[in-house]
Structure formats: C-alpha cells, structure tokens
Amino acid sequence: MYGKSGEDSKNGTINFIKDLYPQAKNLQMKVIILHVGNSYKTKDGLEVRSCKVADKSGSINLSVWGDHGNYIQPGDILSLCRCYSVLFKNCLTLYVGKFGSLTKIGEFCMVFSETPDMSEQNPDWIQQQAQDAKLAALTSSNSSSQTTNLSSKPANKMSSRTK
C-alpha cells in the first residue's frame, strides 16, 4: 500500500517525512527542529513537549517525552531512531519509541521544506481511523457476547441421570 523510500545511511534507510502515514513503525529520520512548543504534564506526571520538525520533503509535529524536551532548541539537527507515527487528535504525529533514540548531530545547516505539513488533518486518515475503531468495537463486542453465551448456558443436572 505504501512504498518505501529514503536515503541509505550507516544504519539502514532514512525515512522522509512526506512518506509517513498512520501506524508507520521502526522509522529512522534526520530532521531539523523548527519550533519548540511549551511542555505539559500528563495525568501520570510525565512531561511532554511538542516540536515542529522538518526535512527536505516536509514537516511534522514531534512529541518528545521526558527530559529530552528540555534540551532541544530550534535549529538543532536530530537523528531519530526507532520512531513511529500515529494520529493524535486527528493529526499525524511522530514519536520516538520506548527503545528509540534522539541524538543531536548538528545545528542550523540542513535543507528543509515546511510543506507539505504532514500534521495537518487528512480526511482519508481520519475516516480510516474511524473504520478501524468500529471494526475493533464490533470484534470486541462479538467476542464478549460469545463468552457470555458460553458462560450463561445452564449446567447439566447429574441427579436426573443417576436415578
């Protein structure tokens, strides 16, 4: 459905922002920080900071969890390993995975394009996400009703057979 493209790097293929889609996983990217937003805390007390990043093919929002967000600045060039993209509030967002890494590899000197902004809402992706959610709910309700039906069957009475 989605073709792979990118540049070869020492560790494999570098993915481009323009090629990202919801649920893309195990991505390696080289990006420049355009804007660092304010941080906020989750219910669990974890700090999250949203940034706008770009490469030569486009831009996207990047969510940075933990203390890493305190150290990045506009103009920083980062290497992102084991990152993934998902729809968050109907906008494509890039995250660094639990076992991923975010490494500063330079400053300021990188060709980039702000368009297309892959974090803008995409009606096709939103529709697909809604269909996936309906399918998951239907599958979940079917499996729970089958479990209920199995458990609600009356037990066989042994006393009538033993007479």
3D structure, described in words:
The chain is of the alpha+beta class and 163 residues long. It has a single domain (7-121), classed as OB fold (Dihydrolipoamide Acetyltransferase, E2P). It contains one helix and seven strands; from the N terminus they run βββββββα. The strands form two sheets. Strands 3-4-5-7-6 form a five-stranded mixed β-barrel. A two-stranded antiparallel sheet has the order 1-2. The longest helix has 29 residues, at 123-151.
Let me know the number of strands. Answer: 7
CATH homologous superfamily descriptor:
Nucleic acid-binding proteins
CATH structural architecture:
Beta Barrel
The CATH class assignment is Mainly Beta
Placed side by side, the strands forming the largest sheet appear as 3-4-5-7-6
- The run of helices and strands is EEEEEEEH
Q: If you average the pLDDT, what whole number results?
A: 79
The largest sheet, given as strand count, sense and whether it forms a barrel, is: 5 strands, mixed, barrel
CATH topology title: OB fold (Dihydrolipoamide Acetyltransferase, E2P)
Number of H- or I-type helical stretches: 1
What coarse outline follows from CA principal-axis ratios?
A: globular
Please, what is the oligomeric state? Answer: single chain
Distance between the termini: 66 Å
Q: What brief labels describe this structure?
A:
two-stranded antiparallel ribbon, alpha+beta, disordered C terminus, globular, OB fold (Dihydrolipoamide Acetyltransferase, E2P), 44% strand
